[in-house]
Specification:
The protein has 265 residues and is mainly α. It has helices spanning 3-20, 25-34, 39-48, 54-81, 86-135, 140-150, 154-167, 172-182, 186-201, 205-264. The chain is 86% helix and 0% strand. 17% of the residues are buried.
């Protein structure tokens, strides 16, 4: 098969498939996206960054497919015009599309990790504000509403969501439990469980919050020390593999030059 005939054949095949399929290509794509096997896991990650509707999942998956196809098809055409065999061109374009698809998925994973890190870093300050509000005599719900209006950040938005659910008729402890399940953070999960138990049993909340605030500060301190240790190890790489060899070379170069002169005499 000549390479010049491959592009018309591909376009004809795509047209034939669109005629054979009873629905429109857009509807068929939506149906295929709705039946994705990884829909549950991807939806959970999207929900952590605030995209918790089925439309958001469809937009994300459509974005993956669109970018993969828009990069794979030009790669296929370029490979054909460069004289690459049709089979190799198709394999190369497929490989490029898979890389783009996986790269977009990894970008979502990185956004989720960044979101979790931001929430964990905000937690000590927010919990201290919550403890002060309760010490001033406010109820747990009113204190949470005050923080959601005055503070900024991901955790404040979660508090605002809890307040909105309670005002819509959901029980306070049910809304808290839903918030704890939606956030992949051990500290927040423990805090939510303690707050629910203390609220249901009528236990003093100030002591519970102070204990969790202390644990949150310790966890943040350990996290910063771990990040500093990793940065220190990363800084050793250019020192060992770049600066140290150059220093040794400068130290030995005069001696080697003198030895060459002596050998030449």
């Amino acid at each position: 098969m000549k390479a010049s005939l491959l592009v018309p054949i591909l376009l004809a095949t795509a047209g034939a498939l669109s005629i054979v399929i009873s629905t429109t290509p857009k509807t068929e794509l939506s149906l295929r996206i709705a039946k994705s096997k990884d829909r549950a896991s991807t939806s959970i990650r999207l929900a952590e960054i605030g995209l918790d509707s089925s439309v958001d999942f469809e937009k994300f998956r459509t974005k993956q497919i669109f970018y993969a196809a828009s990069i794979a098809f030009p790669s296929l055409l370029i490979s054909i015009f460069l004289g690459v065999s049709p089979l190799s061109a198709i394999l190369f374009a497929s490989f490029i599309s898979v890389i783009v698809f996986v790269a977009i998925d990894r970008d979502l994973t990185q956004k989720v990790k960044k979101q979790r890190t931001m929430i964990d870093s905000e937690f000590p300050a927010v919990i201290e504000m919550y403890s002060l509000a309760l010490s001033a005599g406010e109820t747990p719900l009113v204190a949470m509403e005050r923080i959601s209006k005055t503070a900024k950040g991901s955790l404040a938005k979660e508090f605002a969501s809890v307040v909105a659910q309670v005002k819509s008729g959901k029980a306070f402890h049910h809304a808290l439990d839903e918030m704890g399940r939606g956030l992949e953070s051990l500290l927040i999960r423990k805090f939510i469980d303690s707050l629910i138990i203390a609220t249901l049993r009528g236990a003093p909340l100030t002591e519970v919050l102070q204990r969790h605030a202390q644990e949150a500060r310790e966890a943040q301190r350990n996290r910063l020390l771990g990040a500093a240790a990793k940065a220190e190890i990363s800084m050793m790489v250019p020192v060992v593999f770049l600066i140290l060899p150059i220093s040794i070379l400068f130290a030995l170069w005069p001696s080697l030059a003198n030895l060459n002169l002596i050998a030449g005499v």
